[in-house]
Amino acid sequence: MPLTIAICDDNEEQTAELRRLLGEWSEDKPFALMIDEYISAESFLFSYPDKPCSLLLLDIEMSRMNGMELAKKLRESGDVLPIVFITGYSEYMNDGYDVEALHYLLKPPRRDRLFAVLDRYVKRYSPEKEIILDTGGALRHADPDAIAYCEAMGKKTQVCFSDGKTALCDTGIGGMKKLLPDDFIVCHRSYIVNLRYVRSIGKTDITLDGGGKIPISRRLCKEINDKFIGFYTR
To answer: Looking at the DSSP assignment, which residues form a beta bridge with residue 156?
Structure first.
């Protein structure tokens, strides 16, 4: 699965240099790298729902909407897209913490520091495993390991995270199953459960680590038990 990095900067020379450095960084990586370029925060927001990315290299000082305003809009919508700010002014650093930026680099970014940030991103976020949820037009990056279960809500799906937070996605329960790895099982026509959060399996329901219960379809009982045993003995 390719890693997609977006560059949002209104300086063409800076964008070209970042593209060159990214190409150099990716030469020995076990995945393909795709790079999208945006000359303004507005152009990124316009394209983002249809062209999601895994990481955003974001300039702060731009005309009209600046990079910090763009980051705040993403966070207000619930999107946790990793952001690396690249700017010529250090006074923005505290604001970068407010929007949970992955890192902050001063212009022009040094090769070794940029590469270190990118390496840390790949190690921390496992881009090949990350999924993107469509929550009513806003995109949200999510680690499947943090999802406890999913529940069908009509033609939509409510994703329930291990920390108690939820996200209502436009994707149906069938489409959601295709996004998730093999550690997730369909236990009922309306539920998909992450095996890592299952405490026990009964005849009629699954008990989660937090004590919650999820119904089981009788015809799936044996298959669910086999997968549960396989998950903890592999």
So the answer is: 153
pLDDT mean by block of 10 residues, the chain; 234 residues: 87 94 90 91 89 90 89 83 82 58 86 93 71 79 86 95 89 93 92 91 88 90 85 67
pLDDT value at position 191? 96
Between CA 169 and CA 133 the distance in angstroms is 6
Which pLDDT does position 193 carry in this prediction?
95
Label residues 135-168 b or e (16+ Cβ within 10 Å = b). Answer: beebbbbbebeebbbbbbeeebbebbebeeeebe
Report strand pairing: 55-59 vs 3-8. Answer: parallel
Torsion of CA 157, 163, 165, 170, to 10 degrees: -20
What are 100's two structure tokens? 């949970």
Residue 115 has a pLDDT of 95
Tell me the pTM: 0.60
Gap between the Cα atoms of 141 and 161, Å rounded: 13
Q: Are 1 and 31 in contact (CB under 8 A)?
A: yes
Distance CA 116, CA 74 (A): 25
Within 8 A by CB and 6+ apart from 163, the residues are 146
Q: Show Cβ contacts of residue 11 under 8 Å, excluding neighbours closer than 6 positions.
A: 59
Which DSSP state fits 61?
-
